[in-house]
Design a protein that fits this description.
The chain is α+β, with helices and mostly antiparallel strands. It has four domains: about 70 residues, no CATH class; about 90 residues, Pdz3 Domain (Roll), CATH 2.30.42; about 240 residues, 2-enoyl-CoA Hydratase, Chain A, domain 1, CATH 3.90.226; about 100 residues, no CATH class. Helices cover about 40% and strands about 20% of the residues. The strands form five sheets. It has a seven-stranded mixed β-sheet with strand order 10-11-12-15-16-21-22, sandwiched between helices. Helix 8 runs parallel beside helix 9 and helix 15 runs antiparallel to helix 16. The chain starts with 5 loop residues before the first helix and ends with a strand.
Length: about 550
């Protein structure tokens, strides 16, 4: 007979919460749930997986609430937390699998592999004496073998060009950082650029480091790129917003039926409280990205450029369960300083909610500002200049820039989707790493002198043909400039870092170019941030 203690029921359902135990501890609904579990377990025709049955019941309850309340298994919790905690434990390499061989693309700076002398281009052919070359190794196998607890050792057999014999390295695993600031560089003589991919535990520290570097290079204006940033920790978002606002201004507040109103304010110690500020957003900017964007817009601190953000205004709190799993429950809504809740509608079901972003492509919104329809009932005013902004369904930028597909083609898509482009560049860098290092000792020289010529593109096209991607002359001509930039950018990334990749690619992006123009134009910037401008300018 299935028995369950009252204290365990309460812990499972309300762990971490405060509550009052009423006289009737087991109400009818709870009895119904418990009896259903017992009946299935006792009388169902086949063997029942009790764990799966319990998990399915929890998932079923949460699905009736909202799109962001969810049950997360113990394994998923660990994987989910890694990019937000800002680190994992392992040997510290960026790798790729090419021709069934594990190749080190780059050892992570300061990581355990770099410390023992592993270099880019090394082939890892054995792990703890076990051969891993030519056996059909997958990414998941690499993670399983090379990640592990800090302080544990792993023995790697490595083949290196120019070395006749196999080399052996003993690597002691350690904490490996996962960076959330993907790029930081000077986009123009006095305009810096910082790209934030997620809001993690280390984001504020990374931002400070990037800002200090850019200030030494003459930064006066700043572009922050939040495109595609799906969010992360609330504290990380408030920390970044606090770096940009002057005085103890309200950044965001949260409130729910069982969660009292809680306000988050900026400190007086922001690194960039003056100077032109441009924030880039698009339909992939969600949650924490919208908190930062909303605060900047509501206080008229900077100019938002791009397209309407995702529209996630719900706050989740994690409730840990005894087996390491978790219920992530929506407990409140968050509101921008002007009082806006930017959560989009989710009353038509999960599928409709998830497809809403794709509907923007079908409806033409990503290609035309005129396709955006915002309700007058959701109008708000900014805190300083009284500009009109809108709640509900995301944040509308101050300057709308449609998606640019002028260089996109099916041929380009197929070259990328089949992995041909990435494999081609990886092979090219692998064969020419030493000569590239001699010819281009630093990125600046590489960026100004390296040219992707027709001969290199011809070899890429040949590789595509071998993989079944036939060249289409018209489509190739349309995408040629972009493809050449991609090749150059991927080479730069393999030789240096992701920051150099974006420094090569960004100048081809119309949204980025507009941001650089606005940030460096004092009169134009001030005109956008004027009381009668509103928040829906066209390009």
């Amino acid at each position: 007979m299935f028995k369950i203690k009252i204290s365990r029921v309460i812990f499972l359902l309300l762990s971490g919460a405060t509550f009052t135990v009423k006289a009737q501890l087991f109400d009818e609904n709870l009895q119904k749930l418990q009896m259903s579990w017992q009946l299935i377990n006792a009388f169902y025709v086949d063997t029942v997986n009790e764990n799966k049955l319990t998990e399915s019941a929890i998932e079923g309850m949460l699905k009736t609430l909202d799109p962001h309340s969810a049950y997360i298994s113990a394994d998923e919790v660990k994987k989910m937390n890694e990019p937000l905690d800002g680190s994992f434990e392992g040997i510290g390499i960026q790798f790729n699998i090419m021709n069934d061989t594990l190749i080190v693309v780059n050892p992570i700076s300061g990581g355990p592999s770099e410390k023992v002398g592993i270099i880019a281009g090394d082939r890892i052919v054995s792990v703890d004496g076990k051969n891993i070359a030519g056996i059909g190794i997958k990414n998941s196998d690499v993670f399983r073998m090379l990640r592990g607890a800090k302080g544990t050792e792993v023995k790697l057999g490595i083949k290196r060009k120019g070395e006749k014999d196999m080399l052996t390295f003993i690597v002691v695993r350690d904490k490996i950082p996962i960076y959330s600031v993907d790029a930081s560089y000077m986009a123009a003589p006095v305009t810096g650029y910082i790209r934030i991919s997620r809001f993690a535990m280390t984001t504020n520290d990374e931002f400070i480091k990037a800002m200090n570097k850019l200030k030494k290079q003459g930064l006066k204006n700043l572009i922050i790129d939040l495109r595609g940033n799906g969010g992360g920790y609330l504290k990380a978002a408030t920390d970044i917003a606090g770096q940009l606002l002057d005085g103890k201004k309200l950044i965001v507040y949260t409130e729910g039926m069982a969660s009292p109103k809680k306000e988050y304010f900026a400190s007086n110690h922001g690194m960039f409280r003056d100077g032109n500020l441009v924030v880039l957003i698009d339909e992939g900017s969600a949650s924490a990205s919208e908190i930062v964007s909303g605060a900047i817009q509501d206080w008229d601190r900077g100019v938002l450029v791009g397209r309407r953000s995702f529209g996630k205004g719900l706050v989740q709190r994690p409730f840990s369960l005894p087996d390491g799993s978790m219920i992530r429950l929506t407990i409140a809504k968050y509101y921008t300083p002007s009082g806006r809740c930017i959560q989009k509608d989710y009353t038509h079901g999960l599928t409709a909610y998830e497809m809403e972003v794709y509907d923007r492509f079908e409806d033409g919104e990503v290609f035309s500002k005129d396709s955006v329809h915002l309700a007058d009932s959701l109008k708000y005013k900014t805190k300083v200049l009284g500009r009109t902004v809108y709640g509900g369904g995301g944040i509308m930028p101050d300057v709308y820039i449609p998606m640019d597909t002028s260089m996109y083609s099916k041929y380009y898509r197929d070259i990328v989707a089949t992995g041909v482009l990435n494999r081609f560049v990886l092979n090219y860098v692998d064969r020419n790493r030493n000569s590239l290092a001699l010819d281009y000792p630093d990125f600046h020289y590489f960026n100004t002198h390296f040219v992707v010529g027709d001969d290199l593109m011809g070899r890429l096209i040949e590789e595509g043909e071998k993989a079944g991607v036939k060249k289409n002359d018209e489509e190739y001509k349309k995408s040629e400039e972009y493809m050449k930039a991609q090749v150059k950018a991927l080479i730069a990334r393999d030789l240096w870092s992701s920051s150099e990749y974006f420094e090569v690619m960004n100048p081809l992006n119309t949204l980025y170019k507009k941001a650089v123009e606005i940030a460096g134009n004092k009169a134009g910037y001030s005109k956008i941030l004027s009381p009668d401008t509103g928040s829906t300018q066209k390009k």
